[in-house]
Design a protein that fits this description.
By secondary structure, the protein is of the alpha/beta class. It has two domains: 264 residues, NADP-dependent oxidoreductase domain (TIM Barrel); 78 residues, no CATH class. Helices cover 46% and strands 12% of the residues. The strands form two sheets. It has an eight-stranded parallel beta barrel with strand order 3-4-5-6-7-8-9-10, surrounded by five helices. Strands 1-2 form a two-stranded antiparallel ribbon. Strand 8, helix 7 and strand 9 form a beta-alpha-beta unit. The longest helix is centred in the C-terminal third of the chain and has 17 residues. The N and C termini lie far apart (49 Å).
């Protein structure tokens, strides 16, 4: 494992971090994966209050001495903070779940604007942070971000942050905070952690066949996931890169890559391939959903990420296969259940027009053949 030194505090952090949003569902597999990652040198683990079961799973896995071998990053959901007491209530619950007395890297989850930052400050957040730092319950305080460049730069300038975290990958190079935001924060002396290097797995296992062919034609035989990770690590700015590893196979591949990469190692030919793949994905993708599930649960029962996956499957699998998958996956949670309430859009990191996109799903996948096709599948699979 390779490490970088945090210029703010001298922490020696592994360049590969474990993102704990997509841990294995099986308890034993989770335990084995987390401990294997730590035994292999991963010492930065990221979770969040909103990740179902994640904090508690880490709390159980990081016993028997493992807790002292890592630093934990966790997140405060700002929309759940209505009064000052909510901050301590949420934080105490996080410590309880994690079975710890401290969180080394604590951040505001998906902080959208300087105005929202000011609202939290008016509720006494900064005084609370100062108290926690003094007590040793928080070591560093920052924010994660999914918006555009102007608002990101305003937030960077709003306070002397200990760190920040942004979504960054070869497809999103010039989206969200992007390359410009990455460089701006670094220039201001703010360490940057990178999330979504594989864009929720899209860049690993959901590429159009034309994009897959670009990677297969390269002289270096690498998986799409490896190409994506190498692109992020080719740049010197990221302090660590989160990977949402959900299997031992993925972990082992990521560990190997993290041991090999060096900034600036990619060639001009490599960069041209990234550009080709980027253009193909942009042409084929109908909805830029990463499957993060922040929009869920839907009050009307729509499985929003699954609906969007099925729509994008049209370009990958063809309409008939996409519709079959849609019926099976989102059987009683289809797009036509949407009531247009808009609750989903308030929490979407990608700032998608979810309601409009669901209309597209309904139009594309719930046409004239939908009901008979659905009835046939229901009868064959005995779905309720």
């Amino acid at each position: 494992m390779q490490y970088k030194i945090n210029p703010k505090n001298g922490d020696k952090l592994s360049i590969l971090a474990l993102g704990a949003m997509r841990l294995p569902k099986d308890e034993a597999e989770r335990m084995d994966l987390i401990r294997r990652a730590v035994d292999s040198g991963v010492n930065y683990i990221d979770t969040a209050y909103l990740y179902p079961g994640s904090e508690a799973a880490l709390g159980r896995a990081l016993t028997e001495g493992y807790r002292d071998r890592v630093v934990l990053a966790d997140k405060l959901p700002p929309y759940l903070v209505k009064k000052n007491a909510d901050i301590e209530k949420i934080f105490s619950k996080q410590l309880e779940r994690l079975q710890t007395d401290r969180i080394e890297y604590y951040m505001i989850h998906m902080l959208p604007t300087a105005a929202e930052w000011q609202r939290l400050c008016d509720l006494g957040l900064l005084d609370w942070v100062a108290e926690q730092k003094k007590a040793g319950r928080i070591k560093n305080f920052g924010f994660s971000y999914h918006g555009g460049v102007p608002a990101f730069e305003q937030l960077i300038d709003a306070w002397d942050w200990d760190f920040c975290m942004i979504q960054y990958n070869y497809y999103d190079e010039n989206k969200q905070a992007g390359k410009r935001g990455l460089r701006y924060a670094t220039e201001q002396g703010i360490p940057v952690m990178v999330m979504e290097p594989l864009r929720g797995g899209w860049l690993a296992n959901r590429l159009p066949k034309e994009a897959q062919a670009v990677w297969e034609a390269a002289s270096q035989k690498r998986s799409p996931a490896e190409w994506a990770l190498r692109w992020v690590w080719n740049q010197p700015q990221p302090l660590t890169v989160l990977s949402g590893m959900s299997s031992m196979e993925v972990l082992e591949e990521n560990l190997r890559i993290a041991a090999e990469v060096q900034p600036g190692a990619l060639t001009e030919e490599d960069m041209a391939r990234y550009e080709s793949v980027r253009n193909i994905i942009a042409e084929k993708t109908q909805v830029a959903c990463t499957g993060c599930n922040y929009c869920m649960p839907c009050p009307a029962g729509v499985d929003i990420p699954m609906c969007f996956t099925s729509l994008n499957d049209q370009a990958l699998l063809g309409k008939m296969s996409a519709q079959m998958n849609y019926i099976i996956r989102a059987y009683n949670h289809n797009a036509s259940l949407c009531t247009q309430c808009g609750a989903c859009e308030k929490h979407c990191p990608q700032q998608l027009a979810v309601r409009e996109e669901l209309k597209k799903v309904k139009k594309a996948l719930e046409g004239p053949t939908y009901k008979p096709f659905r009835f046939g599948i229901k009868t064959f699979m005995r779905l309720k």
